Amino acid sequence: xxxxxxxxxxxxxxxxxxxxxxxxxxxxxxxxxxxxxxxxxxxxxxxxxxxxxxxxxxxxxxxxxxxxxxxxxxxxxxxxxxxxxxxxxxxxxxxxxxxxxxxxxxxxxxxxxxxxxxxxxxxxxxxxxxxxxxxxxxxxxxxxxxxx
Length: 148
Prior knowledge:
CATH class: Mainly Beta
CATH topology: Metal Binding Protein, Guanine Nucleotide Exchange Factor, Chain A
Low-confidence stretches: none
Radius of gyration: 17 Å
């Protein structure tokens, strides 16, 4: 993995850079993460807080009595998870990295809330974004080019 990795929110207001290797990477299925993200699970990579540099301070949501989550209030991007006390580590959302491809999950967490039907999508039909003509037409009309 690269020495320094960068990422940020969808609108670009909040950016981060992290140095070093992650301590772990995992899929969290707990109900708190499901509710906070509106998703079945969320992919996290854990880094020492000292290795994370923010460019544009994220907003913080106290998601429970023990944890808080950085996010961008302008576009709504979920950027991570951190315990409020006694933690020198922080989880960053894998999808918020500019290049999430170096990460792979080491384990599942919050297994009591796993939605098994969503774990393995192998064998389901696959469609590329550029194959959905209605979306492509709207994107071209709005931006002049096809979506990345």
